Amino acid sequence: PLKRIDSQDSSSSRATAVIDWMGGAWGVYVIMILWQLLFLPIGFYTTAYQVITGDAAEGIHRVPECPSAMVNIVTSKYQQSLLYVMCHQAAYYLSKRIQDEAKEEYRQRFSRLKRFLLRFAIRHPVEFRRKLRKVLRWLRWVRYSIPLMGGLNKLKSNTFDLLKKYRQRREAAILERCFDKLASQKAFKQMSQSEIEVHAPLIIQAAWRARQKRKQLRALKMFQQDPELFAAMRLQKHFKAWLARSRARLKRKRVELAVLQQMEIRTMNEKVGPHLSARERRRMYQLQKELRVAAKKRRQTQMLLRPNTRFSVIWKFIFVACLLIEITQLAMKPKLKRFHEELALAEKRKVDVKDMDWYTYVQAKLVPRPAPEWDECGKALEAQTALPWYCNRPFTDIHTAYI
């Protein structure tokens, strides 16, 4: 307690010293007034200036002639406080100053770097050429590998998603087969009434015992301190409770709306019974709006695809296949470019980016040349000797038809 009293005395003595430094009570009062004046908008000071100078008759918040975009900026600034404008302008000028200094530093360093590279290229041209080729090679590798790595990253995430959907689909199919096996109508139609009375309790007992076993297994895992399972069960419990409360709330709203609509029908037909008041009518319109919004949200939720359907698995498989094709194109792009450069060099023409397609590459690699264009057939024709058997008519026709 004595230490607390001493600390309070020291703090009060410091506060007294600060107040004395400010000039006493009147100094604190003046400082608070000035601080409050800083929070007034700029328009207050412009209006005061116009009143003092006699320009108030021309209009309050008079904006000088400037483009329409600047008018909006100035008038919006009139609504801001003086402290905010001062801090904003200080931050702007500070950032502008730092930006100008950084640009000047960058310009000086870049000029020094250019002079250094020029001197190095003149003094050591072979070394400069070797290092330049090395840098350009690394830049080409970076330019080649960045989109490839992005495609591989997408392929990894989508492949894991495909495996997950496939596993969910397989589990759903197993459950469907088990349900069809247990609750098949054909099996019950083939049974007599006494057999149905015997088998139906067995199915109910099996389902109940399986449910009890699952509950026991969950409780056992909880006692074994499985944090992931415990967290999943807690989330599932809270979600089911929230869903049950939402359904009960919607059910109460539907019942209340049905009662109010019956009262409205009775009011319109002028029948005997309770009629709608103005408050009840507003409540009816509010319930109609809330139920309409809930139905719209439900329709939007139902439009989402379930992950354990066959369509979801096939769609994800097609997407992964398209990603594989994209990655293959990115990986084979240098080879495709080299092939088209060699083809253009052989045909003595310039390389066109539009002609760099996969169809020409696959056609050149997989489609064979016609038999009359083979070198053996051409040499035999030039030497006017007997043609080989594969250069004659029947084989050439079959080969051309195959191509």
Strand content: under 5%
Q: Helix coverage percent of residues?
A: over 70%
Structural class: mainly alpha
Nearest-integer average pLDDT: 77
Taking all Cα atoms into account, the compactness measure Rg is: 42 Å
How many angstroms does the end-to-end distance come to?
A: 104 Å
Label the overall shape. flat
Number of helices: 15
Element pattern in H and E: HHHHHHHHHHHHHHH
The total count of strands amounts to 0
Largest sheet: none
Unreliable stretches: 1-7, 56-74
Describe this structure in words.
This protein is mostly helical and 403 residues long. Helix content is 81%, strand content 0%. The protein has 15 helices and no strands. It is flat. The relative contact order is 0.04.
Summed up, what is this model?
The chain is mainly α and 403 residues long. The protein has helices spanning 2-22, 24-38, 42-53, 68-78, 82-123, 125-182, 185-189, 193-223, 227-268, 278-302, 310-331, 333-347, 358-366, 375-383, 393-402.
